[in-house]
Write a structure and sequence with these properties.
about 70 residues, mainly alpha
Length: about 70
């Protein structure tokens, strides 16, 4: 199915696959901190928090609520 990784089982709903290139050693540093097989969730959480922070900054500057 387009947009999903080719793994067994049902694909997650409401998720878009995006390739992210990390500098050498960063993936291993993340895995060392959070444990194996949790990297994608960790990155999703960080990106979501950063987007919310940037939207808040934009809202504070413009005085308008974000469109989300």
């Amino acid at each position: 199915m387009a947009g999903y990784e080719t793994s067994m089982g049902r694909p997650p709903l409401g998720v878009k696959t995006t390739v992210v290139r990390l500098p050498d050693g960063l993936a291993e540093r993340i895995d060392d901190l959070i444990g194996p097989n949790r990297r994608a969730q960790f990155i999703r959480n960080l990106v979501e928090k950063e987007v919310e922070r940037l939207e808040g900054e934009r809202e504070a500057k413009s005085g308008k609520p974000s469109s989300t």
